Amino acid sequence: MFFWVLALLILCGFLWNYKRQLKIADITDKYIFITGCDTGFGNLAARTFDKKGFHVIAACLTESESIALKAETSERLHTVLLDVTDPENVKRTAQWVKNQVGEKGLWGLINNAGILGVLAPTDWLTVEDYREPIEVNLFGLINVTLNLLPLVKKARGRIINVSSIGGRLAFSGGGYTPSKYAVEGFNDSLRRDMKAFGVHVSCIEPGLFKTGLSDPIKATEKKLAIWKHLSPDIKQQYGEGYIEKSLDKLKGTNSSVNVDLSLVVECMDHALTSLFPKTHYAAGRDAKTFWIPLSHMPAVLQDFLLLKQKIELANPKAV
């Protein structure tokens, strides 16, 4: 009996793996739109999918990066300047994309644009510190999706939302993790709403990657700028050496940061080209072995492990 159960499990595993490897027939007539193509994941994705034969429309925030990307790619790739927080800019861009794709519609929408914002203890921050990452990472993503959704429905295509392990576990104070938690919720509701239209919606949850987004020097500079304006009480509670200790702790985690950005682009590729795309993709060794498993654990265990990474306060009772 055990032998037959084992054989059945092996057969199911083989069929499941085979199903995941089935690809769409042709990509050379398909258009995809990618946000946040100046650097990082979006830039690599634009260059990768251009080489594969897709008609790529790469949205960049700056003209200089747009020109640089166009110079490195084929004539198929088009760039467009886009600020996802500007509703009129998004609306004009959607109309331009509609004119480009015509009756074919838009096969793929990759919502990749995002910012980190300020990562700091909650009691250091104001509501404005939360506003910027939420405007970009959440409302920008939603607005782009809503404006391009009719074109994706026409093609019965794919929507790929780049979230983060920060959408599964709140590893720091600031607007980044609330924005990514909300992206996860929007992604799930969108996936269910679009199922009847034949549109597949996937969410990618990268771990910690070495990109401009996660530059420790920039993060520390932002912390220092906020520190200068904190009240004497809060400075006394945290201690003058808090930021320096935080930076030392951050440097100690550099060995666990993923450097291969193609791990995220491979997830995008599968979500775009597989006949059976996944609903969620974890990208990076840390995401798969630590962050995602921990997100399923009891809160008491999450708190224990994450609080171990925090710096001990100088005088928390000085309130």
Automatic annotation (TrEMBL):
Q: Which organism is it from?
A: Odobenus rosmarus divergens
Annotated InterPro entries: NAD(P)-bd_dom_sf (IPR036291), SDR_fam (IPR002347)
Annotated GO biological processes are: steroid metabolic process
Matching entries from CDD domains are given as: type2_17beta_HSD-like_SDR_c
Alphabetized, the UniProt keywords read:
Oxidoreductase, Signal
Kindly indicate where the leader peptide sits in this chain: 1-17
Q: What is the lineage of its organism?
A: Eukaryota, Metazoa, Chordata, Craniata, Vertebrata
The family annotation for this protein states: Belongs to the short-chain dehydrogenases/reductases (SDR) family.
UniProt-recorded Gene Ontology molecular function terms: oxidoreductase activity
Name of the protein in its database record: Dehydrogenase/reductase SDR family member 9
Which Pfam families is this protein grouped with? adh_short
What SUPFAM superfamilies does the annotation carry? NAD(P)-binding Rossmann-fold domains
